[in-house]
Amino acid sequence: MPLTPLSFAPLPRRPLVSVLIANYNYERYVGRALESLQSQTWPHWEAIVCDDGSLDRSAEVITSYAVRDPRIRLLRQANQGMAAALNAAAAVARGDLVALLDSDDEYLPARIERVVARFHANPEAGCVCHPLCAVRADGDILKPRHPRLLARGWLAPGILRGVEPALPPCSGLTFRREVAARVFPLPPHFRRCADKVAQDRAALLAPVDSLEAVLAFYRIHGANLTGLSGPVTGDSLQANLDFLHQLWADRMEFIRICHGVEADPRPWREIESAHFFLAARLLGLHPAEPIDASRIPSPVRRAVWRALLALPRPLGAAGLRFWWTENAVKRNVRLLWDFLAGPPVWRQGSQG
User: Fold this and answer.
1) Are 103 and 29 in contact (CB under 8 A)?
2) What is the pLDDT of residues 40-51, one digit of tens each?
3) What are phi and psi of 138, to 5 degrees?
4) Cα 121 to chain center, whole Å?
5) Distance of CA 207 to the CA centre of its chain
6) Which of these three, 211, 243, 260, is where a domain ends?
7) Could you tell me if 160 and 276 lie in one domain?
8) Is the full-model pTM beyond 0.90?
9) Beta-ladder partners of 153
């Protein structure tokens, strides 16, 4: 039985955009996130910030903005994790469009305006996304464009076949209200990476459209250093594998409820997430794992995996760490490539 996407009524000419922000102990950054909203060229927005039991001065910082700007609203709850915080914010959102913003990220000034224009240009889209510029805590650029390529179109049939959609993290996502109403509430046991669950659900509901311009800063710092890297220790890899099994269970149930289809999870394990199971073999977690490198869709990555697996395990594990960890060599190669390719993409995006 084929999956059928949602269809939508025309979007209002001047839609209200609800921006959902989950915050936990980011007093250092959340003010800049809110200022990036106040700098938007599209003024018709509301921000719902759910402070998830922060132990620092986050709530005071958010309140200082909310008392001066009625578009900003603060919710507070005991610490329950990212999914629960986003659920609380989504429950009171009034917008025609629902955007996500990490409390340590920042939108570029034209971000909301550009996204609204794309929804108007593509009335079939249930989600519009864009790449981000990954920066250090001090603003130095780590990766001018992340991810480098983005998916678009009706992605659900590919997901069933094990094609992992290339979609951005939290601050690159915006949903039609009709999509957000089905995406939320997220299962509260997703205390981290809840944005991955949200993007997964959205792609199973309606076509996705993507902007080429970089329209937000994605901040990488001590609390989220894995944002651009793969898991390269046994504990971090096992945490990722545990998350994947939870994601697949949620995906199967979501497809059953929304489309009445019983999905086969084998392609997700053997194709979409083969690289995690191959990494587990390299790190000695699952040495008998039957997954084969030939299941990796990219020919370049297939070649890399075959080379790593052919090495003695200590050398293969060292190669994996170099490949999946942010380091100066990779960063300098990327910056040289982007310099030769032209002006930084994030600057192009900031011009609206």
Assistant:
1) yes
2) 999 999 999 999
3) -85, 0
4) 23
5) 17
6) 211
7) no
8) yes
9) 208
